[in-house]
Protein: F-box domain-containing protein
Organism: Adineta steineri
Amino acid sequence: MENCMQLEDLSSELFCEIFDYLNAFDLFLAFASLNSRISSIIKLTRLHVIIDPVYCRSQIKFMSRHLAFHSDQIISLNIFDKICDQKNVVAYLFIRHDFPNLRLCVLRDLQDSSKLENVIKKLKLQSQMTSLHIFQTYYTSTYNICRSHAHLFSEMTLLNTPLTLRFATLLYHYDHSELTTTMTTNINLKYLHLIFYGEVDKITIYSLIPVLRVCNALRQLIVTIKNPPMSRNNHNINIPNFPYINEDDLPTISTLQILDLQIFTQCNIHSLNLILHCMPNLQELSLTLVNNHVNQWLIDSFINGNNWQRMLTSHVANLKVFDFHMSFLMDNRLLDSNVILNSFRYFVTHYNGWHMAISRWITFEDIGPGKPIVLQTLNYKSIVPRYRRPTIINIVYGTFETISTDISNTNDHKYQSNNTFVEFYMLPYMERQIIKPSSNIPFRNVNYLVIYLSFIEVSVISRLFKKISELSE
C-alpha cells in the first residue's frame, strides 16, 4: 500500500505558494490554528485582504484580531465599505491597523463618515503604495461621498502624496477644483482614471487642461466629463460659450500614449482639437461622445470625417489606434448616411482592420424632436464607466438601419453587441405584414426582448413566437 502524504508533510516553499493564492480571511480561518510550523510560515507570507459585500461583522472582527499580528505583511487591500450588516468597514480597519507595507489599495462604495479623514491621513503616510483605486457608484442618485472628502482624496492623489503612487483611479463625481489653483506638478503618476462632474458652466472638455499641466508624466489617461442630468423635455439648449483658451499657453504632455475620453457634455470640434494639440506622441485614442440635445451646429462638425482626418494628422501623427462611439439626436432634416460614411473612408486605409458603422432608427419613446444616430468603430470596446449604449434600446419595428464601411456586412452585428435589452413597437398597419427571415440579424446578444403590439391579433403573435424560436436555435 502506498504511503499517504499528510498536509504537514508539504514543504514550506509549497505552503508559501499555496498561501499566496488565498486572501487573508481564508488563510487565517483555515490554517492559523493548525500548529506552530504553519503559523511561522504564515508570518513569512505576503497577505491580501479582500472584503466583499457578502461579508458580515463577525468575519471582519475575526480578521482584524489576526491582523493585529500580521498587518505589516499586508501588501494589498480590496475592500467594499458596506457589507451586509455593517458600514464604514474601511475606517474600522484603518483605525486599528497601519499597513506599513501596503502597495495596492482598492476602496469600493465608500460610505460617508468623519472617520474617512483618518483613512486619508494614514494613506498619506504610506511609503510603498504604488496603486490607489477608489470606485464609487457611477450613478449620482446613489452617491455616498461628500464634497470635502472627495476633495481630500483628490488632493492627496493628484498632488504628490504619497510620492510612491504611480497608478490612480478616482471614480467619484467631483470637479477636482484643486487642480486649477495649484502650482505643484506630479511627475510620479503614470496612469490616471477620473471623473469630472459639475454644472455645464464649470465642467467642460477644457477641465482636462489642468490635469495635463499638473500630471505631466502620465502615460495613460481615462477621463469622463459629465454634467448633472437635465429635464427630459429640454432637448434644445443654448450652445455654451466655451472659455477662451490661449493656444500658446497650452501644456505639452509628451509621455501620454493612451487617451480614453468620455464626453457627456456640450463639446465642439475646436475644443477637442486644442486638447489633442497637447499630446504630440499619442498612440491610442478612444472617444465616447454622447449628446442628447439637438445642437445641429455642433453635431455636424463631428459627423464629418474630413474634420477628424485634419485634426488627427495635424496633432497626433503617431496615432496607431482610433476608435469612437458617437451618439446624437438629429433634427428632422434629410440626412444622407452614405455621405457621412464616405467622409471617414481615409481611416479604412490608414488603420489596419478599421471599419465603422452608422445606425439610425425611430424610437417610440418621447425623446423630443430628435432622432437617434450612432456612429461607432468596429473595435470600440466598453470599459467601466465608459458609456454603454442605452441599456434599453427601443425601436419602431422596421425603422432600424445600419450601414458600414465593410461592404461584406459580415460584422454589422458586432456594432450592436452591447445592446442586450431591446424593445420593439409594432404599429397598427404592420398587422398583416409578413415577417421575413434575414441572415443579417443586427441584435445577437439580446437577453431581454419586449415587443409592443398596438393591435390584438393572435395569428401575428403566433408568427412572432415561431420566428423568435427559430432565431434562438
About this structure: The radius of gyration is 27 Å.
